[in-house]
Amino acid sequence: MTENKRKPDKALLPLAALSGALAGLAALAVAEAVAGGIRPQAGPVVAVGGAAIDRTPAAVKDWAIRHFGTNDKLFLQLGILAVLALFALALGMVALRFRRTGAAGVLLFGVVGAVAATGRPDSTGLTDALPSVVGAVVGSGVLYVLIGRLRPRGTADQDTVAPPGAGWDRRGFVIAASAAAVGSAGAGLLGRSLSGAGGRDAVASRRNLVLPAPGSRARAVPKGAGLRVPGVSPFITPNGDFYRVDTALVVPKVDATTWRLRIHGQGVRRPLTLTFDDLLRRDLIERDITLTCVSNEVGGPYVGNARWIGVQLADLLAELGVKPPSEGGPADQLVARSVDGMTIGSPVEDLMDGRDALLALGMNGEPLPFAHGFPVRMVVPGLYGFVSACKWIKDIELTTFDAYDPYWVKRGWARKAPIKTESRIDTPKPFARPKSGTVMVAGVAWAQHRGIDKVEIRVDDGPWQEARLAAEDTRDTWRQWSFPWRATKGGHTLTVRATDRTGQVQTEKRTKTIPDGASGRHSVVVTVD
């Protein structure tokens, strides 16, 4: 039977839109429930969000991090849900006139989700399509049934629209809508429960883990390394405050008891697969290392210092026969792969030049938090995270820069990116209104693997004046500094610059974060009362 072309009663459009919303809710809830039984990353919102991240231009990603910070993933997911909600409302209204077309539109939602899920780098196969497909089928059925209740009595199974004033099944609609809402809520709770159950083994493996004492301990943080100046970042960044910038919409929860790391590629004498216990039995070292994200703007927050415990990566590579290019090794790039499909390339020369490049297992005296890479991640002093800090690592391949472009390189970022010499004013804050007199200006400076030699402050266009440096822990950590400023009334601009141990002075030339990190000097404007 062809669909009736008669226009529907406009009074029913809000109910039709509600039907679309309930159908969309049912589709998402059922999809997430199925994903909970397979793997959370196969859910349509996560899969579509991941695909969107992969296809977003680097400049847009950088903008999102700059404006939304570590909440960029939350805003992306909320944006996806908002688009889906609008799509569902529109489908409901379309279905009031074209019932089968509206129901078929929900199935399109399933196709998009299935394609996104199976196309992800971490996809496990066609099973990843099931959440979106099953959810779409259920959502399509819900919409078909609800729209049927808005038809004239006795014509619910026909493509006939209720003319203005005609009766429709009010009681049946309320019952069907309520059932859809309750069923969706139940499916959502089931999905949450299944997702939690899937990570219980991982949570238990972390909870039961006792890290062995490292054979080489980090020295005690020197007295005076942390200034007692209100507003200055603590010398050791607590795990809960440590920045997190990655592309994972769902934090992977990996069971340490089943985790494996494969090492293979050019120059590897014999491929090796390691378990977590294998790493625990090796000589562990403990080091204080400051990490910096390449998305950190001048004066930005994406830098943190922690005490790491792990295995020295260079020793492990050397045991397998790997040599740096300077010693005739064929591989100049180490590609690390994460369980979420991320690929990160690091220069082999840098990893084996004597710096404390780690396969880290612990952070600030405890096993790595899940958000920071449990059970194992890479930590390399002196390199931005996008070319070194692979979290949730599962595979290491020795190759060349000419042979393979990792994730970020494909998106316009640099192949090599040593951390630039930078400094930041932590206090006073921008647009602060301190009282005249002595005002303590203080902050941090970093040039990992080179060390900070000097920090200077300039007030307005005056001369550069040397700040007092706090005690240095190691050249791989940031260094705090302070400057007692005799503030006079009025508006002032405070600017900071650092000089590293090579004599390199922090440049005043402003550059964007793309392709290899921001540069420039941090300044704040204050008004002295």
Task: Give the structure's gist in a few sentences.
The protein is an alpha+beta fold and 529 residues long. Helices cover 32% and strands 21% of the residues. The model is unreliable at 1-5 (pLDDT under 50).
Describe this structure in words.
- It is a single chain.
- This protein is an alpha+beta fold and 529 residues long.
- The chain has helices at 13-38, 44-55, 58-68, 72-97, 99-118, 130-149, 170-198, 200-207, 276-280, 313-319, 348-351; strands spanning 260-265, 272-275, 284-292, 303-312, 333-338, 343-347, 358-363, 366-367, 377-379, 393-399, 422-427, 437-446, 452-459, 465-466, 468-469, 479-487, 490-500, 523-528.
- It has a five-stranded mixed sheet. Strands 3, 4, 7, 8 and 9 form a five-stranded antiparallel sheet that branches. A four-stranded antiparallel sheet has the order 11-12-16-15, with no helix packed on it.
- Helix 1 (13-38) packs antiparallel against helix 6 (130-149).
- The longest helix has 29 residues, at 170-198.
- The protein is globular.
- The N and C termini lie far apart (80 Å).
- Mean pLDDT is 92; it is low at 1-5.
